[in-house]
Amino acid sequence: MLLKLNNIHKSYNTDQGGPVKKVLEGISMELDQGENMAILGPSGSGKSTLLNIIGALDRPDSGDVVFEGNAINDYTEDQLAGFRNQQVGFIFQSHHLLPQCSVLENVLVPTLPLKDPKLKKECFERAQELIKEVGLWEQKDQLPGTISGGECQRVAVIRALINKPKLLLADEPTGSLDRKNAQGIASLLMELNKGFNTALIIVTHSLEIGAQMSRAFDLVDGQLVKNK
Ligand SMILES: Nc1ncnc2c1ncn2[C@@H]1O[C@H](COP(=O)(O)OP(=O)(O)OP(=O)(O)O)[C@@H](O)[C@H]1O
Ligand SMILES: [Mg+2]
After folding, report:
1. Does ligand 1 come within 6 angstroms of the Cβ of 43?
2. For residue 159, which of 116, 188, 182 has the smallest C-alpha distance?
3. Residue 228 — very low, low, confident or very high, per pLDDT cuts 50/70/90?
4. What is the DSSP string of the chain?
5. Which residues pair with 218 in a beta bridge?
6. Which residue, judged by its Cα, is nearest atom 9 of ligand 1?
7. pLDDT, tens digit, 9 for 90 and up, residues 63-121
8. 222 CA to centre of ligand 2 in angstroms
9. Is the CB of 76 under 6 A from ligand 1?
10. Is the CB of 12 under 6 A from ligand 1?
11. CA 192 to ligand 1 center in whole angstroms
12. All domains of the chain, ordered by start, with CATH?
């Protein structure tokens, strides 16, 4: 078992003294290494909140996130930083590439904290392989502003993979793309999921993409409901 969620609850305080907004009300799920799943559901239902909790960008009010048998709630800040950087890859709706850095440099950003020259060299080679694999070799020295939105999102996908994470978390990764590019990114994510055995959780509004995943859930009223 790669990931297990036990009874996750999360609420937000609205205005001071205002009512508490319950977002997640007892989420439990399991994901094996290399598996993939989609999370769908209405806007504001808590999909990003859940993904952020899984990726340790946010903490639940109660419940456990268990990764490879360890409850990440018990991690120190240093361990959490390592978890975010090494074990998880994030992809968001907008690509968040650094505009002043080339495609290749952007892919290498998550490896900047690495000190070991051997590891750095391996990452450099891996970045080049991944860039070739997604068909961007010709553009590897270009700035994000000079390539298309779909191409930028491909760069964001391989940047998320550069540290060989075991889990890829994608929050509406196709939300800003047209249908053809959206399908391209979805296919790429699935190829990488299979090829590298990287588990994938994708939040999407697209029923079409949801249907292509092995499992799909709706997040409704704070609960995950299986729809496939
Ligand atoms: N930091 C915060 N403080 C207060 N309320 C928040 C905070 N973050 C999220 N919320 C609220 O929690 C609810 C769930 O938000 P979330 O972003 O998880 O929804 P979502 O399902 O990802 O929506 P979308 O599909 O629009 O991205 C929303 O009502 C949102 O306003
Ligand atoms: Mg969201």
Report:
1. yes
2. 188
3. confident
4. --EEEEEEEEEEE-STTSPEEEEEEEEEEEE-TT-EEEEE--TTSSHHHHHHHHTTSS--SEEEEEETTEEGGG--HHHHHHIIIIIEEEE-SS----TTS-HHHHHHGGGTT---HHHHHHHHHHHHHHHHHTT-GGGTTS-GGGS-HHHHHHHHHHHHHTT--SEEEEESTTTTS-HHHHHHHHHHHHHHHHHS--EEEEE-S-HHHHHHSSEEEEEETTEEEE--
5. 40, 225
6. 49
7. 999 999 999 988 999 999 999 999 999 999 999 999 999 999 999 999 998 899 999 99
8. 14
9. no
10. yes
11. 29
12. 3-226 (3.40.50.300)
Closest of 160, 8, 21, 3 to residue 95, by C-alpha? 160
Query: In testing the pocket of ligand 1, which one of 12, 91, 93 has its CB within 8 Å of the most ligand atoms?
Result: 12
Length of the chain: 228
Rounded Cα distance, 39 and 60, in Å: 18
| Locus of tokens 């504001």 | 44
pTM above 0.85, yes or no: yes
Output the residue whose Cα is nearest ligand 1's atom 18: 46
49 close to ligand 1 (CB < 6 Angstrom): yes
Q: Are 21 and 12 in contact (CB under 8 A)?
A: yes
